[in-house]
Fold this sequence. Notes:
The chain is α+β, with helices and mostly antiparallel strands and 389 residues long. The protein folds into two domains: 2-276, no CATH class; 289-388, Beta Barrel (Lipocalin), CATH 2.40.128.520. It contains 13 helices and eight strands. An eight-stranded antiparallel beta barrel has the order 1-2-3-4-5-6-7-8. Helix 1 runs antiparallel to helix 2 (49-74) and helix 3 (95-117) crosses helix 7 (168-185). It is elongated.
Amino acid sequence: MKDQFQYILPLAINIIRYFLFAGIPFLIFYIKFPDFFKKNKIQSRFAKRKDFIREILHSTQTTFILAGVGLLMMKTPLIEYTQVYFNISDQPLAWIPVSLILALVLHDTFFYWMHRLIHHPLLFKRIHLVHHKSVNPSPWTSYSFHILEAILESLVAPIILLLIPMHPIALLLFALSSFIINVYGHLGYEIAPKWLRHSLFFEILNTSTHHNYHHEKFNGNYGLYFRIWDRIMKTEHPDYVMQYDLIQKRRFGDDHQSKYNWKIGALFLFIVSISLVNIKAKSPSSIEGKWKDEKTGGIISIYEEDGLYFGQLLGADKAEHNQKIKEKGKIFILKNFKKESDTKYCCGTIFQPLEKRTVKGTLVLEEENKLKINGKYAGFTGSRIWKRM
């Protein structure tokens, strides 16, 4: 039952996340207080009930696919090829927010180019039209994708996990922040504060108006979180800023164009700069040196040669085993491991003297004096803990 629960829980969390973070804004803006927020409405008309039902059904399907890809990456041997780390001390604490920002930047880049690809005439009607049936989007639109687009969207997860070291806390923050931003982009109401317009943030970040314009006009404004790629590639709609200003004028009056808030922008840049300067990965000790398997008493010496790491068997607890080791000469328990990160070494082989077989494996430096050796044989994964001597 416990094993089943660990697979059901991520799916349940994804479903709850969708209905909670899309449902509450929908309840506030579309059901309870539409008149109060009338000035914030980007398009004057409203979508119909059938549109909401269609969006919820497609979004539920997408949620299953995203949860499935997440499980595939985190609950199978594929996790050995990712940069996920579970010991929070493996990286500086500041790496959690920085890795989150990097993940959002990477996701935005992936989304921009994937989004432009599926706007190609050969793909638009077959894949992306489902999402664009929501000409006037609502929070329910956030995950309303054709099944093939949902699969394409889910590919960003393995890309991020393979490229960026991320702790589960950062992964959780990424999942929440990315979806909340997505809901804001499809909200149908502009709720950005007055000061945003003339701050540094406006030049970088997307707004709900930005993405709503994409749904209304069907082209331009392809970015997800940032305006950067649209501006570089000249795909931002030329009327976007004017449209944004009209909505803000309706909300705040003629004084909506307040003085440029340099202090907020400068503070943001200062914080980011300090974070990046101080992000120096804590260098755990190298795996080189002597290690002992407390279970079997085996002792190995790990050393580096031409960029690869080897582990030579030196001794054991039992005298007869030591005698055999001396008779055989050099016995390499570990061969050809390559350093993948400060704590992970992959793609080598492990020789198991007792079973007399060689298996593929990875080495993970879980703590400064704790080395986990993972071996894979016939689809099964086993591990041993070695302590530094």
